[in-house]
Write a structure and sequence with these properties.
80% helix
Length: 192
Amino acid sequence: MEERSKHIDQYYIEGLKNRDKAIFEKVYDLYWSSLYISAFNVLRNKEQSEDVVQEVFSSLWNNAESLNILNLNAWLFSAVRYQVFNVLRSGKVRTRFENLYIVEELTQNIGELKLVKEDLHRRMLEGIEQLPPRCREIFILSRIDRLSHHDIAVKLAISVKSVENQISIAQKKLRISLKDLAYLLPLLFYRS
């Protein structure tokens, strides 16, 4: 079997050296997908991988007469590795690695934001717990349950003005207890 493979390999090499288009097309069809996968596994870019394989076949066709190819398979894969190295060295895929860095940074930032959000939520709940009972109840109905001032007034049998006053008191007390995060309070309790 190995002897037959060497014979076929030699047949292809001779055909390429003689610039036989049918042999070139056969080699192209046999190896293109494997060479593409080899390039893509490193570059992770469809167009650049296709360009690498195209460059290898172009070089093979244009220089076959002068190339000293003993093993066609080995030569083709070595040529692809060399072209991939040239692409990497030229910095054409640098943006890919920069994008990976940006994704890593965003992932870290998302983790940090989640911790900040959890801390903010915990501190906000602690601030709400420190409000006087009636003030806390009205604030929760307004900002968490999202009831209108009128609905709260009806539910608690108090005036709308009392509801507004209690919400104002709650906001002032929360601003004081969360003074280092006061700039975020409008976003936390925004009612659309």
